[in-house]
Amino acid sequence: MEQKVALVTGGNRGIGYAIAQELIDGGYQVAVTARSGEGPIGSLTVQADVTNSPSLDAAIEQIESKLGPITVLVANAGITKDTLLLRMTDQEFEEVVDTNLNGVFRVVKRVIKGMLKAKQGRIILIGSVVGLLGSAGQVNYSATKSALVGMARSITREMGSKNITANVVAPGFINTDMTASLPEDVASKYKEQIPLGRFAEPTEVAKVVAWLASDSASYISGAVIPVDGGLGMGH
C-alpha cells in the first residue's frame, strides 16, 4: 500500500518532534515545518512560518511534489506570551492569535483541497487543557486553544461526508524544555493539581495523535481528547 503523507507543523522540537517520530515509526511519510532546526531522522523538514502565507504555499508545494498529497495534518505550531491581563499588550495578544489560531486556519485551508482529491483526511489540532479549563496569565493562549474546538467541530460538519475527520488533542503539562526550566517548588505545586501526580512524556501525546490518524479512529470526529492526567476533568 502507498504510504500516507503526514505534515506536522512545528515538528522540530518538543511535542511536535515526538509526534513526527511516532508517525515515522508507524510507517507514514512525514514532513515537518519549522522556522529553524530539523525534524527527526527520516522526516522531510521544510522552512516555513505559519504566520507567513507565501512561506506556507512554498512549503506545501515542496512537500507534495516530493512525497505526494498530504492526508494527515497535525497542526502543532504554537507560541506563548504569558502575562496577566492588565499587563498584556495588544501586540502580545495578537501575535499569539496570529500563530496559534490564524496559523492553523492557514495550514488547514492549504491542505484540505488535497484531502478532498484523495477522498480521505485526518486533521488533528493540538490544543491544550487550558483551552477549556482556563489559566491565569494566559488569556491570549487559552483563547486560541479554546477556538480550535469550534474550528474542529465546524470542519467536521463541513467535511465529514467527504471522509475527512477533525479532532483536538488537548495536552496538559508535558515534560519539555519549557517545564524543565520551572523551579522545583513550582513544578511540585503543579503536580499536586494533577490526579496522576506527574507530567506527561511527549510520546504519550504522540501516541494519541497517531491513533487519531489511524484507521482505528475513522469514526471519531469533532472530539476533544485530553492527555492531561485528569487535570481538566469535567471541562
TrEMBL record:
Coiled coil regions, renumbered to chain: none
SUPFAM superfamilies, per the entry: NAD(P)-binding Rossmann-fold domains
InterPro entries in alphabetical order: KR_dom (IPR057326), NAD(P)-bd_dom_sf (IPR036291), SDR (IPR050259), SDR_fam (IPR002347)
Pfam families: adh_short_C2 (PF13561)
Keywords: Oxidoreductase
Residue ranges of domain Ketoreductase in the record: 4-177
Gene Ontology molecular function: any one: oxidoreductase activity
Family, as annotated: Belongs to the short-chain dehydrogenases/reductases (SDR) family.
Protein name, as recorded: Unannotated protein
Organism of origin: freshwater metagenome
Source taxonomy: unclassified sequences, metagenomes, ecological metagenomes
